[in-house]
Amino acid sequence: MRYLSTRGEAAPRGFEDVLLAGLAEDGGLFLPAAWPTLSPAEWRALRGLPYAELAARLIHPFVGEAMSLATLRGMTEAAYSGFGHPAVAPLVQLDHRSFALELFHGPTLAFKDMAMQLLGRLFDHVLAKRGERVTIVGATSGDTGSAAIEACRDRAAIDIVILHPEGRTSEVQRRQMTTVLAPNVANLAIQGSFDDCQDLVKAMFNDAPFRREMQLSAVNSINWARIAAQIPYYAAAALALGAPDRPVAFSVPTGNFGNVLAAWAVRQMGLPVERLIIGSNRNDILHRFLAANDMSMRPVEPSLSPSMDIQVSSNFERLLFELLGRDGVATRTTMERFRAEGRMSVPDAAWRKATGLFHGFTLDDAGTLAEIRRLWEGAGYLADPHTAIGTAAARALAPADHAIPVVVAATAHPAKFPDAVEQATGRRPPLPPRLADLFEREERFSVLPNDLAQVEGFVRAHARRNA
Ligand SMILES: *Cc1c(COP(=O)(O)O)cnc(C)c1O
């Protein structure tokens, strides 16, 4: 399998390079040179497999010659063995035709574990093979940091340092990071805001000698391997509901467009996905694009679904490249104009192609609370605010008059956002048993001022401890 950059200038790369590099050197995002496709008979043969086996078989074409199916299977089995449900990503029926695909049974109770648990192992495997190691640094306002820490803990070739703004994450979020006492994990509370943390990380990456010395790396949401690792759960849901002999629709609460892109990839691979519904909170740039071919940046507004509080959906560039007929020059020009002017549109034919498949939906906080209450009262189902936007979107935009099942990506456990759930339903969702002692566990983190030299000194002291 070879990968192309969406901006058309980087040389084609293999899976290992794409995994370790993340972003292409021309600033673009990697996509497979050709989509692997399965025939209906091949899809049918995958029905009923255990999740780790299905994942290995569907991800292997993207990995290509980089590792054997058996090696990859060993990694998917290890990645998903710690999940809190034997189905890994169970389907729960909500009404006569809609289902929640629960992606939150991993160690940090949000869907990012589905990809990150495998990504950490893929990184470790490829680095060990090459005799290399990396230091992962990242900034978090809460959720992505814990998923990255859980993915990298105890990996031999990786050290990880995560910066969070001191006192500005929820206690659950902080403890999910700071109670991981693995020797290759370090947490740093910065006396400043989330933006200060992000600026510190950027400054470390821009400090070329430091970046080289520490072999800095990131596991951000544009990494192709994360998308690939999100494909199997959409396939599993579709197969369980009768695909490839029956079409299915997906509704996905969306921020960076990564999760819904994986649902779209399943369609590229040959499953009958009838429509893709994109749920947004007040930060509705994608909804506005689909409504009027106007992708325009606005300031981020905080909401009850903070993991979707974004201004620019970075993974959208991959869809744009396909909409523009895989024209790297056109994609680069469009993205550069977007960065410079804060808005873009696409040629009419491309926009029509997008709106033929993707349907946008937006919901404010009051609507989100009402939807959480409706699900609780109607189906006895406790949904987190992100998931509720997905279910509301499905109700509004999936055709009610014919028998296509609609699968809603349930992206976070309700106990991850207990305040909103309690406000809506009067019930405070408890943490699952395996996390019930989170508040008694020992924490470890250091506190530093917003000062680059001190932060770099900390990273230096904590990296390469196993070297
Ligand atoms: C990250 C996240 C999202 C958004 O996913 P994208 O891939 O960025 O679209 C939605 N819900 C939750 C709970 C998340 O953590």
TrEMBL record:
Keywords: Amino-acid biosynthesis, ATP-binding, Lyase, Nucleotide-binding, Pyridoxal phosphate, Threonine biosynthesis
Protein family per UniProt: Belongs to the threonine synthase family.
Catalytic activity: O-phospho-L-homoserine + H2O = L-threonine + phosphate
Cofactor: pyridoxal 5'-phosphate
Residues annotated as domain Tryptophan synthase beta chain-like PALP: 100-328
Highest taxon, organism lineage: Bacteria
Start and end residues of each Threonine synthase N-terminal domain: 2-80
Protein name: Threonine synthase
Enzyme Commission code: 4.2.3.1
GO molecular function, one term: threonine synthase activity
Species this protein is from: Siccirubricoccus soli
Pathway(s) annotated for this protein in UniProt: Amino-acid biosynthesis; L-threonine biosynthesis; L-threonine from L-aspartate: step 5/5
Pfam family, one: Thr_synth_N
Stretches of the chain forming a coiled coil according to its record: none
Record carries keyword Nucleotide-binding: yes
Entry keyword Zinc-finger: no
CDD domains found in the cross-reference section: Thr-synth_2
Gene3D superfamilies noted in UniProt: 3.40.50.1100, Threonine synthase, N-terminal domain
